[in-house]
Amino acid sequence: MNRFIGFLKKEFYHIFRDKRSMLILFGMPIVQIMLFGYVINTDLKDVRMAVLDHSKDEYTAEIINKITSSGYFQLSNNLKSIEQVDAIFRKGDVKLILVFEPDFGKKLVKNSKANVQILTDASDPNTANLEVSYLQGILQNYNVEINKDKQLPSSIQANFRMYFNANLESVFMFIPGIMATILMLVSAMMTSISIAREKELGTMEILLVSPLNPLQIILGKVTPYLALSFINALVIVGMGYFVFGVPVLGSFTLLMAESVLFIFLALSIGIFISTVAKSQQVAMMLSMFVLMLPTIILSGFIFPIRNMPVPLQVISYIIPPKYFIVILKNIMLKGVGFEYVWKETLILLAMTFGFIGLSLRKFKIRLQ
Amino acid sequence: MNAGISIENLSKTYGSVQALKHINLDINSGELFGLIGPDGAGKTTLFRLLATLLLPDIGSARMCDIDMVGGYKQIRNLLGYMPGKFSLYQDLSVIENLEFFATVFDTRIEDNMDMIHDIWVQIEPFKDRLAGNLSGGMKQKLALCCALIHQPKVLLLDEPTTGVDAVSRSEFWQMLKSLKSKGITIVVATPYMDEANLCERVALIKDGEILQVNTPQEIVDQFERKLYAIKSNDNYQCLLDLREFEFTNSVFLFGQALHYTDARKEFSLEEVNSYLKSKGHLHLEIEQVKPGIEDCFMALSTKTDGYE
Fold first, then answer.
1. How far, in Å, are A211, B62, B67 from residue B71 at the CA level?
2. Same-domain pairing of A33 and A105
3. Whole-angstrom distance, CA of residue B241 vs CA of residue B1
4. Helix then strand then coil, % of chain B, to nearest 5
5. Nearest C-alpha of chain A: how many angstroms from B113?
6. CATH number at residue A112
7. Domain count, chain A
8. What is the ipTM of this complex?
């Protein structure tokens, strides 16, 4: 036991004296949350819009009013003719143009049908799509409003409500993703680097010659990062809750227990990497390419897995963060209990044991 | 307790390079033993095998009557090992390093002060300095302290004085002498031939083979030819000319002079002198000198090369 405590003490000295690891450990989570939460924001807000109104009547005025008061769009230009469209899109400020046909109001009253055209700058296709659907929603609402008292011949009224994230806030999706990324990075990369460092500096030689057994060395290496990663998990959930209002609807204890399990998994991957990597450089590269990129791209954190080509979908099944993100979303946003996430938990558990077994088998009691 | 080492027919190959070729060696309990050889001779490989860090291809070795392969766990408790590369934690202070190694061996610094006291007093003034900021000599002293903290029976030191200044080197050897008096078997590898004289017995090793095992005195005594130091204005040209000389047994550049042996048992020095004069070396100083370990090493290693 004394040996173990001595080892832990040494590990904490290493971590606290190395500015780089301190930065990765505590600076990165906060920076990432801030970046993803504030900068990378896919929600619509104050999109600049121009209007080409050939009709200029009370209906078009009311529609424009409805749109600008929604908060999503902001009226910046009134165009005179259709020729201006090209130029204004090229300038780039205006992303969306609304064109009302001549005699819009009259046609609406007389023929109970009038046309409005939506033009968008689709150089950013996702946003363009989003803008169109938001705008359609607003027009649809208006449609319903003006037809309130009339009996329409058999028409379907679609009412929708977004569950679990009523305002479609992207930060709800990012917090679980960031949590998975950070825990993976801190746990796996930092442990693999710290073990590789012992190899690189030759201190592993001395540790091996000492009576410490592999399990003691591994546990000594892993425990500090387990503790620090757990603190990170708390910080991320805390920042999500207090800064961005991401709820934790389910059990907080369950959430933390699942996080600890995922940390264990990441640590065992880190140890496994270090048994393969001979130097800190290699350990870092391996962690980056094998863990970071798949965590961000293939885990369903940013891009929906369903839309990926089949081979990538298959690969996504062996990406541990994928399961963790599902668990996190379920617990945090849907507020479900263990009975809804046991399958994912079991997969993570199996992966953990798999990697620990592999690492213990691969961990060398000698130099070769 | 027998703290000796016996090595039998030990071989180790890395890929296509045979680092050790059928080594046989016996090191007595309590001996200060030197392993002398140039870089790449196989010293570090032999040490790593003895330190249970590598497995031999064939052959076996026993330390303290325990088999190196089967009993590696026991051996790791009895062994103090100092690798050739400085292998302490550079970001830990002197005292933190020592404390760490003490706890790894489940012991305390105070309990082992008698063992490390002589060395510790020298590094104690720097105990709060980070190990990475120590001078080369201090680093080695600290490493020795760490290797001794668990009172090992056998101490393996791989090139402990490489890259250390002359004063620290002699201090270091003084420490080894006093450690020997405590009954520890000490094996030191070194590329410095002059350090061989400080050992009780030495093994000369080259290209993975042991050339000879003997006391330094006997190795020197075995040198059967007369050795001459020749100084001239142009040592290098003189070396080339002597190589052409029909009676030359060996000639090496040795510091400021050439060390020369003649192939004949009986000969007159005048003959060598006049040969060199005929080659244009006019300012010559020739005197007979006592052979050192290095001369013996050169003689032995050329013999095995079949180069006479």
1. 12, 9, 5
2. no
3. 57
4. 40, 30, 35
5. 19
6. 3.40.1710.10
7. 2
8. 0.80
- Chain B environment of A217 (Cβ under 8 Å): none
Q: What would the two tokens of residue A69 be?
A: 């008061």
Q: Tell me if A164 is assigned to some domain.
A: no
| A292: exposed, middle or buried (Cβ count in 10 Å: 0-12, 13-18, 19+) | middle
Residue A113, token pair as written in the block? 């049908």
Give the closest residue to B4 by CA, choosing from B48, B74, B61, B56: B61
Distance between CA atoms of residues B127 and B93, nearest Å: 7
Q: What does DSSP say about strands B185-190 and B17-27: parallel, antiparallel, or unpaired?
A: unpaired
Give CA–CA dist B154/B3, Å, rounded.
Answer: 6
Q: What integer pLDDT is reported at residue A230 of this predicted model?
A: 93
Give the number of C-alpha atoms closer than 13 A to the C-alpha of residue B247, restricted to the C-beta side: 15
CB contact under 8 A, A210 and B76: yes
- Supply B99's token pair: 């404390």
d(Cα B32, Cα B195) in Å, to the nearest integer?
12
Rg (C-alpha) for chain A, rounded Å, is 28
CA A232 vs CA A11, A226, A352, B22, B294: distances in Å: 18, 10, 20, 55, 61
Residue A29 amino acid letter: P
Strand partners, B20: B12
Q: Report B:53-72 residues touching A (Cβ under 8 A).
A: 53-55, 72
Q: Which domains does chain B have, with CATH numbers?
A: 5-220 (3.40.50.300), 224-290 (3.30.70.100)
Contact check, Cβ <8 Å, A6/B86: no
For chain A, which residues score pLDDT lower than 70? 40-43, 151-153, 155, 157, 168, 368
**Measured at the alpha carbon of residue A310, what is the angle toward residues A306 and A314, in degrees to the nearest 5?**
90
Residues A194, A108 share a domain: no
d(CA A284, CA A277) in angstroms, rounded, equals 9
Show which residues on chain A lie within 8 Å of chain B, measured between beta carbons. Answer: 2-3, 5-7, 9-10, 13-14, 17-18, 201-203, 205-212, 365-368
Location of structure tokens 């705008």: A135
Would A119 be classed as within a structural domain?
yes
Amino acid B232: pLDDT = 83
pLDDT number for residue B308: 38
Q: For B166-184, write each residue's pLDDT tens digit.
A: 888 888 898 899 888 888 9
Q: Which residues pair with A116 in a beta bridge?
A: A100
